[in-house]
Amino acid sequence: MGFTMGLNFVLLLAMVATNILSLYHLSSTIQSKAPTPPPVPDHLLRQLHTIRATINHLTRLQPTTTTTTTSNPSKPTVPSDLLLYTHISPIASSCRHHPDLLHRFMNYTPFSLCPHDTDLAESLILRGCHPLPRRRCFSRTPPKPPTSSSLLPTDPFSSPLPDNSIIWTKYNCKSFTCLARFNSDLGFDMKVEKPKFLSYKSDLDLPIPQFQQIAKSAKSVIRLGLDIGGGTGTFAAQMKKLLNATVITTTMNLGAPYNEAAGLRGLVPLHAPLQQRLPVFDGVLDLVRCGHAVNRWIPVTAMEFLFYDLDRVLRGGGYLWLDRFFCKGIDLDKIYAPLIGKLGYKKVKWAVANKTNSSGVKNGEVYLTALLQKPVSSK
């Protein structure tokens, strides 16, 4: 009630100020012999602009009294911390398309423990509401602190991952051992993860030692990298172990705690969606690898923006590694190969093979593994 009365007062003040200003100009124009009025002071114009901007901003967030009390009495009001945050920082435009989720996310008790709502945050991020608004609450910590026999592992392939660091609540499995036993391909079984990216079994494989030789032959140094859709971070772990390279992994918790696992392995998980600009500065990375997260399910236009964003963060001479990109065979020749070709990168490796699982056979899909080197700009 107090907010609505305050908003009405601001609206009334703005109307009165605007009308007085309009009458002032009107009276000066109809008196032809009157002297030219002095210009409107800059500070008054700034105040009017501020009032109008504030009204526009608040009316977008606060539902009108008629709508709240008559049309939809059960519609919740905007959380107070969301209103406060909008005064100090902008909010992603996509957030406005999902007000119910956003209000639930910001409806918490300030200065207390944050709610168990990582799934809610992930739902907003996947809908393009990113970055999320900041909150004034304390992140949760594991109920049992590490003991001398269960310190955080220094080896990213230690098995199993320590369960005393678990803080998730939404998954059926309550331990990493359960996750590894449930499906060894999810990335939680360190015995399965340890040999990955090390051996050559088909043309689609590019072992890290072979990639190291390619880079060495081209006199390229591999120090910094980005692994897009890297799950629990096994590629980053192998690059750290073999090349002493720092690789950041973008990953989402789609059905399993991938971010938590990557962090426990001593790796950096970047909780960021593919549809947003990468939070990396221009031309600083030596390598970008795209795993299964980058495939034909991404709309072509969105993928084109993604590829050019990857080009933005790669330095001259850096590598773009498409690891088992899959699409329909006919689309590879007509759509994706020309799309990749627009980058003008050197083809170091280009291998295509049929996708032999049931979905691949049904849809006529193929895999592509490509290693592409960005040219050095001539300007």
TrEMBL record:
Keywords: Signal
One MF annotation (Gene Ontology) recorded for this entry: S-adenosylmethionine-dependent methyltransferase activity
Region annotation (Disordered) ranges: 136-155
Domain Methyltransferase type per the UniProt entry, residue ranges: 226-321
GO biological process, one term: alkaloid metabolic process
Top-level taxonomy: Eukaryota, Viridiplantae, Streptophyta, Embryophyta, Tracheophyta
Superkingdom of the source species: Eukaryota
InterPro entries in alphabetical order: Methyltransf_11, Prob_Methyltransferase, SAM-dependent_MTases_sf
Protein name per UniProt: Methyltransferase type 11 domain-containing protein
Signal peptide feature range: 1-22
Presence of the UniProt keyword Signal in the record: yes
